[in-house]
Structures are given as structure tokens and as C-alpha cells.
What we know:
By secondary structure, the protein is of the alpha+beta class.
Amino acid sequence: MARIPDAFIDDLLARTDLVELIGARVPLKRQGREYSARCPFHDERSPSFTVSPSKQFYHCFGCGAHGTAIAFLMNYDRLEFLDAVEELAKRAGVEVPKDTRARNASGESLDLYAALEAAAQFFKRQLDATPQAQDYLRQRGVDAENRQRFGIGYAPDAWDALKNALGTDERRMRLLESAGLFSKGDSGRVYDKFRKRIMFPIHDRRGRVIAFGGRVTDKDDSPKYLNSPETSLFHKGRELYGLWQVRQAHSKIERLIVVEGYMDVVALFQYGVTQAVATLGTATTPEHAELLFRNAPDVVFCFDGDKAGRGAAWKALESALPRMRDGRQAFFLFLPEGEDPDSIVRKDGAAGFEARLAQAMPLSEFLFAELSKDVKLGSLDGKARLAERARPLLAQIPDGAFRDLMHARLTELTGANLAKPQPETPRAPAPQRAGATARRSLVRSAICLLLQEPALAQDTPWPPLFGALRQPGVGLLVELVALVRERPQLTTGALLEHMAGREEEAALHKLAQQTLPGDTATWREEWRDVLAQLDQQTLAQRVDELKTQQANAGLSNEDKDELRELMKLIVRR
Ligand SMILES: [Zn+2]
């Protein structure tokens, strides 16, 4: 992905008022230093969503949603990262740096979009000119409105219809080839890849055609579905057929239904089930799962009831597990043999299909059913085996009520709390251990203060003495101090944005949402005190080193001088 300079993001966040941005979408109520609301990301009766104007970030104590203006736009307006940045830039009246945008929409890819659009128009004209293809769609109940909505077309039964119509100049020919619309024979002859197929353009999240899927009209032809190959614009693992249309039809999507074929999506739409999307000939990837849940809190995966279908469902479950934050739900629906959503909805209508959806299996049920398939739950062995299989899977679920429930269910099934890591039994801490804990919490206090009021770091001596301290978190603390010194206007939110995607991100968010007692003056005092203590520990660390060396190999004169100086500097407590 194109990288936007950090400084630009900082500037953008500094120009954005998060309270105004969120307030325009969610009614906010002032409460002391912060604003609160009923969380827009999960259902709740009393408000646990807070927006901090000073820190410039939001947090929900109910579902854990949190972030800056960028994250809010991504999650609430369902924008991609770059689009969220563009949106904020537009509001702030600034331009996104050219080289970043250039990589998103280079001249080459703009031409590619245009070539794909031309191909889509060609296929549409061919559909208008081919009664048999129209008959096929008519038999399936697809009316003109939905043909239009999905941009459905037809690739004629010829080797070079598209080539002759559009490949007239060399450049366009090359573009269409790189878009995967042609195949090359052994002799090097280029011909149309899609022939005698109903053509379904695949749209990206802005509604541009990025690829095609073709479905045979003749039962005996194969393969039943044929997709464009992966191109610079089209990555199967990241796209969902129909998502553009679903988003056009709904301002708020309550749930998404994942089916296997384009025809299923179109048929469901035709019969009034307007929230279906399809993966494009691949298993459900983690990117798919993320995209699904970013668009809707509930996702129903529909699969064939056969072995292949259950295997595909299991893949989907594995992709979904790490994304099962509270407030999100996944269900699995297995269809009877020989049926697909298309055939069911045409036979039983929307109500019939909805009735099946209502019977879909919750993720928890599917997970435990699959894991205990060949396990005798009556025996101790069997229980242990189930726990062993479940443990790594449950570990992937984000912290929250759902994870707790899954553990509780496992306990219920196995009769023992085998899955949860045992809480450490409290024991009398050895003196050294207590010291280590105290030191750790000192670094933690420093980071906590810094997140409360980033400006504290501005007049920290540089490079800080404590940078040499060998303790967990010191590197992170130094990094944060350096960031603020370099960019004095950073708010807490902007500071966190710098840490987006890092493994420390979640821990930092937790610290940032604390509201420390006191005000800037008391925090500044505490900050200086904590840093002074850290400096002292750094000196003590060096003294220990020198003393060890003295005992082992002796000290040079230089070392001796240093030791003497250090002893003077160390404050005895
Ligand atoms: Zn929430």
C-alpha cells in the first residue's frame, strides 16, 4: 500500500476536530472533560462511548472500539485507510501528497479502469444483441433493473469478438491483456478468454470495474465459473462480489450473507434478499473477514452441506475467529445437497430463504461440533483431546465477553477448565522480583503520563540518560519521547496513530484511555520525578556493571574514575 508520510498524517489530525467529526454523525453529550454517546459500533442502552477532545481519540468501554479520526472514518463510514485520509484532507482543505496518490491511481491504472469499463460496455451490448443469453437470465428471474444494477453482460461464442471490437490499437490491446481478458494459445495467438458466458463485472469499493466473472449458460460447459486472473487492480482474496451493490442499497448494513456464486448474489437480490456477497473462487481469507465485519456486525456464511462445503466453512471460521470482537457475530448455514441459494430463493422466495438463515448455526456451535466430531466426549481422553484442539483456536479470539463465553462452553464440554491459562498463584515475591516489578511500573507510569499529555516530553533532555536502561518498555518510551520532541503538536490520538499496526498498539490504547488525577502542573512534576528515578536506575545499572568487572578482570584507570563519579551522582535512598 502506498505510504503516506507520517508528518502529513500528524498535520491532518492536528487540523481535524474529532468531536466535530464524530458529533456530525453521532449525538454527543458533554460530560466533564469528555463527550459521551451510545456507541455507534455496538448495541447498547447506556452510553459507554467516549470522545476526548484533548487527547483527540475515542474509546468504547463496551466493545473496545477505539482510535483517531482516521479509524473512526474507516469504521463508521466504512472507508479504506487511504480514502479516510483523503476525506479528512478534503475537510481540512489540504492536498494529499502527490506521490502517494500517484501510486494509487497512476496513469497506467486509470487507463486500465477505462479499458475494463469499455469491456463491460461491450459485454452489455452483446447481451442486448443475444436473445439466448437474455432468455437464460429471464429463466432465472433476473429482470432489467438487476441486469442494470449488476452491469450484467454476455461474452459471445467467438474467439475474437472482444479483440476485434476493442483491441484496435496496440496500447489498448496491451491493457486488456494485462486486465486478463485475453488468453494466449501455444502458437502465441491471442484470443478472448471469456466465451459464451454471462459476464458479471466485479466492482471495487468505489464502484469501478476491476475484473470479470463469467458463468456458463450451458450446463455441460466447464468450468461453471471463470474469473479474471489476479491483476494489479484485482486481488481475489480482498474483493467480495456484490459488496458495492449492497452498499448502494443500504445506508446501514445489518448483516452480510456470504455465498459462493455471482448468480446466487444476483438471484437473492432479485428476490429481495439484498445483503449477499460472494467470494471469488477462493476460500474466505482473513482480509475478506475483516472487510465483512467492517461492513456489518453479523455475517452468515452459506455453504454446500457436502464435505467440500464444510471444509470451506472451516476456513471461513479460521479467518473470522481473530476478528470476533464483541458485538460481532458469525453464523454458518449448510444447504441441502444439490441446492444453492439461487435455487432455494427461486423455489421458496425470500421468506423461505430467511427461514433457513434463521436456523443458521452460530460460530460457537459449528466450532465445537467440528472439533468433537471424532472425539468421544464421554471419556477423559476425549475431553482432553477436545481441549487441546480448541485451545489454540480460542486463543485467537480478541479479549471480551465472546471469548469468555467460548471458554465457558469448553469448560462445560470438557468438565475442566483446561483451556484457560491458569491464573498465576500468588506467592511471596523474592526481593529482587519485587524490585523488577517496581522498575517496570516506573516505565509504565512514564508512558502513561506521556499519553495523558504528550507535551510533557518536549523539554526532556536529549538523548535521555535512561535510554541505556535495560528494562522492558524503555525503548518504546524513548521512541515516544523522540516523536513528541520532533512534532510538538502531537495529540494523544496522533501519537497512537504513529503506533498503528505495532504490537504495542493495544497496550498503549489501554494506557491512553486512563484519566489520571491532577492537571498539567502535577503531571509535569510526576513526569520529572519518574524520569529522575529512571536516570538513577541507569546510573545504578552502570555501577553494577563496573563492580562486576572490577571483581572479575579489574578496572582500567578510566573505569575507576567513572565509578567514582557515578558513586557521587547516585542518590542513596
Ligand atoms: Zn462500543
